[in-house]
Amino acid sequence: MQLKGDYHTHSQYSHGRGNLPKELLEIKEKVERLQAEFPRIKILCGVEANIINHDGDLDVPDDILEELDLVAAGLHLLIIPPDLVTAWRLIIANKLIYRFFPGRREGIRRWNTEMVINAVKRHKIDFITHPGYQLDIDTFALAKACAEEGTYLEINARHGELTRGFVEAASQTEVKFIINSDAHSPEAVGELAPGLKIVRDLKLAPERVINFEGWRRDGR
């Protein structure tokens, strides 16, 4: 079965350089011009926003998010923390304490999970990018929350086999998935085969993966 679309790719604007809200509106204008030039290709304008604190705040204002075709959000360690609590609980805890103090891991895992779930509940997020990548997260709890809110979970082809365990656990809920390349170079755009292999190996039903039907926002 053929896949339709790659919905997580990066550009020269990526990774938070410059005035992000202003640049997102510039990207939207460019996408509109390119769409007119290449009408046979559906081009979407979106962002991979960072989840920046326990409340689930994103680093892109809601009024800007509403202007975009799609909104992805991810939990990353390479962010500038907005406060000391986040610096400690997200970055220091996950990089150092989790490694050297096993007894603290459950609390760190719970805090990580709550960050993402709070973001899903507070914002209109279309999908969560590379969930659980480099961070310990309660897969079932996150997948259940995403299913309730109509948010997809990404099957990240760039991280390949690292995604498999998460997808297998999340599939026990009613959440739907989206396969993306997470391309960081032009030649990697559309390289979805590793993600598709996971879907086939785990025997996920095609209706669980929105790429088989093409992009939609489930009425949101």
Structurally, how many domains make up the residues? 1
How many individual β-strands?
5
Let me know the largest β-sheet: 5 strands, parallel
Q: What CATH architecture would you give?
A: Alpha-Beta Barrel
Apparent shape: globular
How far the N terminus sits from the C terminus, by CA atoms, comes to 27 Å
Written description of the protein model:
The protein is of the alpha/beta class and 220 residues long. The protein has a single domain (20-212), classed as TIM Barrel. It is 38% helix and 10% strand. The protein has 7 helices and 5 strands; from the N terminus they run αβαβααβαβαβα. It has helices at residues 20-37, 62-65, 84-100, 105-122, 139-149, 164-170, 193-201, and strands spanning 46-50, 70-74, 127-128, 152-156, 177-180. It has a 5-stranded parallel β-sheet with strand order 1-2-3-4-5. β1 (46-50), α2 and β2 (70-74) form a beta-alpha-beta unit. The longest helix is centred in the first third of the chain and has 18 residues, at 20-37. The model has no long low-confidence stretch (mean pLDDT 91).
Concise summary:
By secondary structure, this protein is of the alpha/beta class. It has 7 helices and 5 strands.
Question: Key terms for this structure?
Answer:
220 residues, alpha/beta, TIM Barrel, 38% helix, globular
SSE topology sketch:
Layout: H1 20-37, E1 46-50, H2 62-65, E2 70-74, H3 84-100, H4 105-122, E3 127-128, H5 139-149, E4 152-156, H6 164-170, E5 177-180, H7 193-201
Parallel strand pairs: 1-2, 2-3, 3-4, 4-5
